[in-house]
Amino acid sequence: MATAAEEAGLVTDERAARRVALGVTVVAAVGFAIVALVWVPWQPVAGGTPRAVAADSVFTPLEIRRGEDYASWARLWSLSSLIISLAVASALGFSRWGALLMARLPGPWWVRVVLGVAMIGLVGRLATLPCSVMLQRHRLANGLSNQSWAGYARDLVVSEAVAVLATSLALLVLIGVARRWTRAWPAVGAFVVGAMVVLTSFVYPVVVEPLFNDFVPLEQGDLRSAILELATQEGVHVDDVLVADASRRTTTLNAYVSGFGATRRVVVYDTLVESLSQDEALSVVAHELAHAEHDDVVIGTALGALGSAAGVGLLGLVLTRRGRRLPMADPGVVPVVLALTLWATLAASPLQNGISRQIETRADVDALAATEEGPAFIEMQRTLALRSRADPTPPTWLHWWWGSHPTTLQRVALAESFRSGNGGDPVR
After folding, report:
1. Could you tell me the pTM of the whole model?
2. Hey, what's the torsion of the CAs at 118, 124, 129, 134, to 10 degrees?
3. What span, in angstroms and rounded, lies between the C-alpha atoms of 247 and 62?
4. What is the DSSP letter of 255?
5. Which of 149, 218, 272, 407 has minimal Cβ neighbours within 10 Å of its Cβ?
C-alpha cells in the first residue's frame, strides 16, 4: 500500500497534470479556431451558396426511388454498426470488464498495451461483422461492388491490422510519456500526437494506400495531356496523375488528392477514367487540382493535429479528475481511452464535416471556373450519384452530422448558378 507521503505526491502530480491539461486544451482549441477562421473558406461562393435544385429536375422518379431505397438500407447497417461499436467500447471502457481484461494480459506494460488494443479491436470488429457483411451484400446486390468475399475478408483484415498498429503507437506514446513525465504528460503527449498526425498524413499515400490498391500513371493520351494542361493553367505542379485499380472492388467513381510536399498525389479511379467523357473527367480532376492549389490536405492536417492535441488535453482533464482510479501511466487505462476516443470522434463529426463541406464547395467553384463546363459538371455529378446510388435528399440531420460533401442537388445548383452568371467568381 502507498504511504501517506506517496499518496500526497500522487495527488500533487495529478493536480499539476490537470493544470497542464487545461492549458493544452485551451491553447490547442484556440489554435484550431485560428486555423479554421483564417484558412477555411467560410464563404466559398460569391453571393452565397445557392439553394439546392429539385430532385426531379436532375433524376427520374425511378432513379430517386432507387437511391432512397439503397440509402435507407445502407444507413440501417452503418448506424447499427456504429451503435454496436459505441456499446462495446462503452461496456469495456466504463465498466470493470475492460479492467479485468487488461489485468489478465501478460508481459510488460508496452506488451499489454498492444495486446489490449488488439483484443478490444477484435471484439469490436467481431461484434460489428454481421452489419459489415450485410452492407457488403447490399452493395453486391445493387451492383456497387464486384469484390469477391475473399477480397473483402483480406481488406477487412488489413484494415484492422492498420487500425491496431496506428492506435497502439498512439497509446504507447501517451502512456510512455505519462510514465516519464507525470505532471507534464498532457503537454508532451499533445505535441507528440500532433506530430504523429502530420507524419501520418505525409506518409499515408506511400505506406497505407498501396496496401489496398495498385497505382499506375495515367496512360499517354488526350485526357492526360488535357489534365496536365489544366494543371499548368491553374498553377498547380503535378508530377503525375495516378490511376487506382478500384474496379477490382467497386463500380463507383471517385478521385482524390492525398499527401503533401513530396508525397502529394492526384489519384483517379480506373472506373472513372473508363466511364466519363473527357469533359466530365476534367471536371473531376479540376476539383482535385483545386484542393492541391489551396493546400487543403495541409489545412486538414493542421486542423487534425490541433484537434488531436486538444483531445489529449481533454483526456488529461478526464483522467485527472478527483476519484479516478487509473492514471494515464497505467496500461489498464487502454479501454477507457478507446471508449472516450470513439465518443469524442462522434461528437466532433459535425464540426469536421461542416469544415469539409466548405472546402469541397470551394473546390467545386474553382473547378467550374477553370473548365467553364457547367453542363459537363452537372452530368458528371448526376453520373456519380447514379453509380453510387446516392440519396438525392438525405435527412438534414444525417447530412449535417456525417456529410463530408455538399449533396448532389446542392452541387448541381452551384453549377446552374455559375452557368447563369451568378456564381462565377470563386472566393479565394
Report:
1. 0.91
2. -140
3. 26
4. E
5. 149
**Cα separation of 187 and 25, whole Å?**
9
Q: In what order do the strands lie in the sheet with 241-244?
A: 215-217, 241-244, 265-269, 255-258
3-state secondary structure of 379: helix
Tell me the C-alpha distance between 65 and 53, whole Å: 17
- In 150-200, DSSP assigns E strands to none
Q: Predicted confidence band at 9 (pLDDT cuts at 50, 70, 90)? A: low
Mean pLDDT of 8-24: 80
Q: Which residue type occupies 215?
A: F
End-to-end CA distance of the chain: 63
* Residue 237 three-state SS: coil
Burial label, 274 (beta-carbon count in 10 A; 0-12, 13-18, 19+):
exposed
Residue 238: left if φ>0, alpha if ψ -120 to 50, beta else—which one?
A: beta
CB atoms within 10 A of CB 268: 24
Q: Tell me: the pLDDT tens digits for 26-77?
A: 999 999 999 999 999 999 998 899 999 999 999 999 999 999 999 999 999 9
| Per-residue confidence band for 6, with pLDDT thresholds at 50, 70 and 90 | very low
